[in-house]
């Protein structure tokens, strides 16, 4: 069973954007493995709490992401 796990900062994606991730990822797996993979493809969009992860020894927060805009 193909499986993809996306971890995103909580509150940064709309329900529609999460749905887009699921559909496009499923389409990609079906393109690569054939249509037989589509009904068995699992896509998990997992929200991580603000400050619950880090990149390059820096804690990632929503405030820091918005400061980069």
How do you describe this structure in short?
By secondary structure, this protein is of the alpha+beta class. Helix content is 36%, strand content 29%.
Class computed from helices, strands and strand pairing? alpha+beta
Taking all Cα atoms into account, the compactness measure Rg is 15 Å
Strand fraction band? 25-35%
Rounded mean pLDDT is 94
Low-confidence stretches: none
The number of E-state strands comes to 4
The largest sheet is:
2 strands, parallel
Topology order in helix (H) and strand (E) letters: EHEEEH
Strand order of the largest sheet: 1-2
Name the helicity range: 25-40%
Distance between the termini: 38 Å
The helix tally amounts to 2
Shape: elongated
Keywords:
elongated; 36% helix; alpha+beta; two-stranded antiparallel ribbon; 69 residues; two-stranded parallel sheet
Ordered list of secondary-structure elements with their pairings:
Blueprint: E1 3-9, H1 15-33, E2 42-48, E3 53-55, E4 58-60, H2 62-67
Parallel strand pairs: 1-2
Antiparallel strand pairs: 3-4
How would you describe this structure to a colleague?
The structure is a single chain. The protein is of the alpha+beta class and 69 residues long. 36% of the residues lie in helices and 29% in strands. The protein is built from two helices and four strands. It has a two-stranded parallel sheet. It has a two-stranded antiparallel ribbon with strand order 3-4. The chain is elongated, with a radius of gyration of 15 Å. The model has no long low-confidence stretch (mean pLDDT 94).
């Amino acid at each position: 069973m193909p499986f993809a796990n996306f971890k995103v900062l909580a509150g940064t994606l709309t329900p529609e954007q999460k749905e887009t991730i699921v559909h496009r990822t499923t389409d990609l797996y079906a393109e690569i493995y054939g249509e037989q993979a589509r009904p068995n493809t699992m896509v998990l969009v997992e929200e991580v709490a603000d400050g619950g992860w880090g990149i390059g020894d820096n804690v990632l927060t929503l405030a820091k992401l918005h400061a980069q805009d």
